[in-house]
């Protein structure tokens, strides 16, 4: 049996499950961590070693990492609503426990940490963003997600050259029941708008391309101690995405446009109201959700292309069509 063992956190999620799938297709041994009560059906159908536990439990994390050579950390609080404590626990404390377990392990070689382009804050629209760009630019009050991801990166850097960091844009795909379904429900309920003119190119990746870079970074010597952007070329506009979804649902096209400045003000007002009233449910529109539709495509992936040989292989359009086909089988009520 090969001594190489890949340990994947967040393996029940869209990204983690694709990483597991790719590793197994390459003949690798894989260990997965899943929280109690999470849907492990897909993992149970695969030839993996399945751990049940929480990254907030130090003993669980130590046992999970023990014997592993390569660790890929996907688990995170990624939704865009909640108090800072939730993000601190879900993104910072969990990462700290994982890093400490790696430091104690005799077999550990490399950790890949999945961060986010949200660490850059909110740069100017035409600003070229490579991995050396300043973090936390023009911060939004209450942007707990971006803040927690910056802190998590600082924790990971304690591993030095035994870690690599990936900063992906928003991604979607098969086994993701959140991103496209949320938009589709909004379209069906009549609550969908096109923000601005709608002709902006989307910075959205199919999840398999993020999974591919994750595996490249955990294995390549060149990735030791490095950070990589993982972003899309931009082949589909906001309006085109919504049109594709409308056609798939056999609904008329969305024609309502909301000016971007008004959309930002509306999102901020909804967030403030929700926090003042102590609402746990995510507002209908948040600034973070809005940024997914408006994030520019000026994030450089040249470093990953040069050092890892990574390329975007699935266009946003093709990824959307593939995800729609998958959703027809698992969530037919959306159509």
UniProtKB/TrEMBL annotation:
Q: Enumerate the UniProt keywords alphabetically.
A: Lyase
GO cellular component terms attached to this protein's record: cytoplasm
Domain NAD-dependent epimerase/dehydratase stretches: 8-231
How would you classify this enzyme at the top EC level? lyase
Q: Name one GO molecular function term.
A: dTDP-glucose 4,6-dehydratase activity
InterPro entries reported for this sequence: Epimerase_deHydtase (IPR001509), NAD(P)-bd_dom_sf (IPR036291), NAD(P)-dependent_oxidoreduct (IPR051783)
Organism domain of life: Bacteria
What is this enzyme's EC? 4.2.1.46
Pfam families xrefs: Epimerase
Record-given protein name: dTDP-glucose 4,6-dehydratase
What is the organism of origin for this protein?
Neorhodopirellula pilleata
């Amino acid at each position: 049996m090969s001594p190489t063992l890949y340990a994947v956190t967040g393996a029940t999620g869209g990204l983690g499950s694709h990483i597991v799938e790719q590793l197994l297709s390459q003949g690798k041994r894989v260990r997965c961590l899943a929280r109690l009560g999470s849907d492990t059906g897909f993992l149970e159908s695969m030839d993996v070693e399945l751990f049940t536990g929480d990254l907030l439990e130090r003993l669980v994390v130590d046992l999970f990492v023990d014997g592993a050579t390569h660790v890929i950390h996907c688990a995170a609080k990624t939704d865009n609503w909640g108090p800072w404590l939730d993000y601190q626990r879900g993104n910072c404390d969990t990462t700290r426990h994982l890093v400490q377990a790696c430091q104690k392990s005799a077999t550990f070689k490399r950790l890949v940490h999945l961060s986010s382009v949200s660490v850059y804050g909110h740069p100017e629209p035409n600003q070229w963003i490579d991995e050396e760009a300043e973090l936390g630019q023009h911060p939004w009050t209450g942007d707990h997600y971006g803040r927690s991801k910056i802190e998590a990166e600082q924790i990971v850097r304690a591993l030095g050259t035994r870690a690599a960091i990936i900063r992906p844009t928003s991604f979607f795909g098969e086994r993701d029941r959140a991103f496209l379904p949320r938009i589709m429900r909004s379209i069906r309920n009549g609550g969908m708008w096109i923000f601005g003119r709608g002709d902006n190119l989307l910075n959205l990746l199919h999840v398999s391309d993020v999974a591919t870079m994750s595996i490249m970074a955990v294995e390549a010597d060149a990735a030791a101690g490095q950070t990589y952007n993982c972003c899309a070329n931009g082949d589909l506009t906001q309006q085109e995405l919504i049109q594709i979804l409308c056609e798939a649902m056999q609904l008329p096209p969305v024609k309502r446009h909301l000016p971007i400045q008004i959309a930002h003000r509306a999102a901020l007002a909804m967030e403030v109201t929700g926090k003042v009233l102590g609402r746990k449910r995510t507002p209908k529109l948040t600034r973070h959700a809005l940024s997914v539709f408006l994030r520019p495509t000026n994030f450089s992936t040249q470093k990953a292309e040069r050092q890892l040989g990574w390329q975007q292989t699935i266009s946003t359009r093709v990824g959307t069509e593939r995800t729609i086909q998958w959703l027809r089988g698992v969530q037919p009520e959306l159509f």
